[in-house]
């Protein structure tokens, strides 16, 4: 029978001894999620600027669409990525399925609407007067963009952290496109799911503790950043 | 820089906000756009500052040393010659120094030169020592002064100010007015959008009165405000200290009678009339003063309301007289509701017009 205390002891032992398998999984998780978050924020910031700083027909529809994409279930994104990247799919020739690149692609797609939505909200929240003041003081396009980014820097950082936190905790989609291959595409969430099913509770618990610490750490940073953004 | 506006119109959601406006800004001086809320003065000012497009008509800018008028595709070049200050002004996140130096930073001015000019500009608005303060934590009056310093540091030829002293403490309002006058003296063109007719009377050279999207009256401040339709201005000034009564002849002057109360006025009309008195032009004193002011009225404070840096006090002198004084004066004089005071004002401070 499952012995919680025994498993906890073993998990703590693995962590304190810097078990190679655990740290490889943790590093892979952070690598994939950081890469996907960086890609997503690099797309989200220019996209949100293009949407909010220009007047065009259908602007509200576009913002509505971005917000709707936030609600798309991760597993559906996983399915689409799987179909596109599978050997018989249109992008099958890239041979990306079950690789960290496939996981990064899917996680970027998951984070993109969330980060874009948050960046749009931040830019809209800034109000048009800041922009106008910069314009009347002679700011050209480059200074205007840099100046506005500076004004919303904490909100942009909060968007990044929120997106990172979302993709780091994602399981099903990551499993579908990554395949949870030991030493290659195994990350914290997929490993916890697998090891728990297999009955290897100590590894699951050890990874769970790390994931929890990282998640709480991210949340603390997010609260601090949001506190500054709200000032 | 000269501006020539010809027949411009603007609508928002099908509602005409400006109709067929034409004006020119050529000589240095202080120009006032006056009008009630919704009259279109802010929209017109935003158009002049190239922040809003016109629906029809032309807006031409003639820049010194160039032939003819510049076209709108030279907008950035024209914009760099002017500045607009909102009220309340927007402060960027960061220090007063960062804010005040923004215009120079985008112009690529070196750090040392920027610092020198910023400190000079802050000093001129009594903001010396403020440079390291977080701009957004300042008081409304200080923020408005930083905004003016930020605009002046780039030495614009044309400055637009939207309600420059509304809701400000008296010190800031005075400093801003003095700066505006100084700018005009230095050959700049200053355009104000304002409600404050008292201010217009004090500082403006030229007035455009906007009503319902058209310029209904224009002229020098003296002509428009003194020779114009006084009843109309009376209504526009609002209800503070506006009385209906009668002007009667005295041996050496005129007196305005409201019920049992009367005070001296400087006017050439007699009979039924209206009178208004700027609350800022009444002095409160605890003792009876001997001065050149013709009117000294004894009364009791019945109400005091804090507004911005001011106290708006109602003194019952037989009729309710509104007096504006600073919080510092209120505290130093140890005033409270029920205090006995004297309200002192000059006969020439009372604006009178014939009742219709």
What can you tell me about this protein's structure?
The complex is a heterodimer of chains A (231) and B (356). In chain A, 78% of the residues lie in helices and 0% in strands. Chain A is mainly α and 231 residues long. In chain A, helix 3 crosses helix 5 (100-126) and helix 5 (100-126) runs antiparallel to helix 8 (153-168). The model of chain A has no long low-confidence stretch (mean pLDDT 91). In chain B, helix 5 (111-124) crosses helix 6 and helix 6 (140-152) packs parallel to helix 7. Chain B is α+β, with helices and mostly antiparallel strands. In chain B, the strands form four sheets. Chain B has a six-stranded mixed β-sheet with strand order 5-6-7-3-8-9, with helices on both faces. Chain B has eleven helices and 19 strands. Chain B is globular, with a radius of gyration of 23 Å. The longest helix of chain B has 16 residues, at 170-185. The interface between A and B is medium-sized, with 17 and 23 residues.
List the helices and strands and how they pair.
The complex is a heterodimer of chains A (231) and B (356).
Chain A lengths: L3 H13 L3 H33 L6 H12 L3 H12 L14 H27 L1 H9 L4 H11 L1 H16 L3 H7 L9 H11 L2 H29 L2
Helix pairs in contact in A: 1-11, 2-5, 2-8, 3-5, 4-5, 4-9, 5-8, 5-9, 6-7, 8-11, 10-11
Chain B lengths: L1 E11 L2 E11 L3 E6 L6 H8 L7 E7 L12 H5 L2 E4 L10 H5 L1 H5 L4 H14 L15 H13 L5 E5 L7 H16 L3 E6 L2 H7 L2 E6 L2 E7 H7 L2 H8 L4 E9 L2 E6 L2 E5 L5 E7 L5 E3 L9 E13 L2 E7 L3 E7 H6 L7 E6 L4 E5 L2
Helix pairs in contact in B: 5-6, 6-7
């Amino acid at each position: 029978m499952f012995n919680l205390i025994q498993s906890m002891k073993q998990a703590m032992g693995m962590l304190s001894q810097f078990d190679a398998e655990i740290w490889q999984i943790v590093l892979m998780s952070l690598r994939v999620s950081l890469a996907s978050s960086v890609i997503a924020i690099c797309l989200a910031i220019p996209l949100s600027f293009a949407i909010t700083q220009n007047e065009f027909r259908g602007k509200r529809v576009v913002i509505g669409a971005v917000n709707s994409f936030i609600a798309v279930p991760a597993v559906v994104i996983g399915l689409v990525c799987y179909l596109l990247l599978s050997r018989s799919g249109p992008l099958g020739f890239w041979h990306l399925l079950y690789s960290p690149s496939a996981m990064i692609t899917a996680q970027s797609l998951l984070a993109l609407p969330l980060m874009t939505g948050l960046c749009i909200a931040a830019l809209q929240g800034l109000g048009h007067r800041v922009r106008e003041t910069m314009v009347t003081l002679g700011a050209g396009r480059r200074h205007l963009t840099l100046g506005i980014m500076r004004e919303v820097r904490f909100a942009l950082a909060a968007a990044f952290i929120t997106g990172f936190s979302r993709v780091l905790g994602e399981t099903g989609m990551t499993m579908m496109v990554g395949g949870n291959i030991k030493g290659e595409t195994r990350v914290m969430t997929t490993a916890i799911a697998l090891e728990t099913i297999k009955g290897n509770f100590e590894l699951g618990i050890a990874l769970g503790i790390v994931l929890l610490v990282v998640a709480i750490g991210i949340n603390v940073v997010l609260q601090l950043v949001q506190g500054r953004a709200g000032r | 820089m000269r501006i020539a506006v010809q027949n411009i119109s603007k609508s928002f959601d099908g509602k005409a906000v400006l109709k067929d406006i034409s004006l020119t800004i050529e000589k240095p001086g202080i120009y006032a756009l006056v009008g009630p809320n919704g009259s279109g003065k802010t929209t017109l000012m935003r158009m002049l500052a190239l922040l809003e497009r016109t629906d029809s008509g032309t807006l031409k800018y003639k820049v010194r040393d160039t032939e003819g008028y510049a076209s709108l595709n030279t907008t950035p070049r024209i914009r760099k010659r002017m500045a607009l200050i909102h009220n309340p002004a927007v402060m960027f996140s960061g220090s007063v120094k960062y804010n005040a130096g923004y215009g120079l930073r985008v112009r690529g001015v070196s750090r040392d030169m920027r610092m020198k000019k910023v400190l000079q500009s802050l000093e001129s608005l009594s903001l010396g020592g403020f440079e390291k303060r977080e701009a957004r934590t300042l008081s409304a009056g200080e923020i408005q002064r930083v905004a003016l310093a930020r605009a002046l540091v780039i030495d614009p030829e044309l400055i637009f100010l939207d309600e420059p002293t509304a809701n400000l403490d008296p010190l800031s309002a005075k400093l801003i007015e003095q700066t505006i006058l100084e700018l005009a003296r230095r050959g700049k063109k200053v355009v104000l959008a304002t409600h404050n007719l008292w201010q217009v009377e004090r500082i403006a050279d030229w007035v455009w009165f906007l009503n319902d999207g058209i310029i209904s009256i224009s002229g020098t401040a003296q002509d428009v405000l003194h020779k114009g339709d006084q009843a109309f201005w009376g209504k526009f000034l609002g209800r503070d200290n506006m009385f209906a009564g009668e002007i009667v002849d005295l041996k050496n002057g005129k007196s305005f009678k409201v019920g049992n109360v009367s005070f001296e006025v400087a006017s050439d009309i007699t009979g039924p009339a209206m009178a208004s008195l700027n609350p800022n032009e009444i002095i409160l004193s605890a003792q009876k003063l001997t001065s050149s002011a013709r009117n000294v009225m004894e009364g009791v404070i019945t109400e005091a309301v804090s507004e911005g840096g001011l106290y708006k006090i109602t003194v019952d002198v037989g009729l309710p007289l509104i007096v504006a004084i600073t919080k510092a004066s209120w505290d130093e004089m140890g005033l409270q509701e029920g205090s006995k005071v004297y309200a002192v004002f000059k006969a020439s401070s009372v604006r009178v017009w014939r009742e219709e």
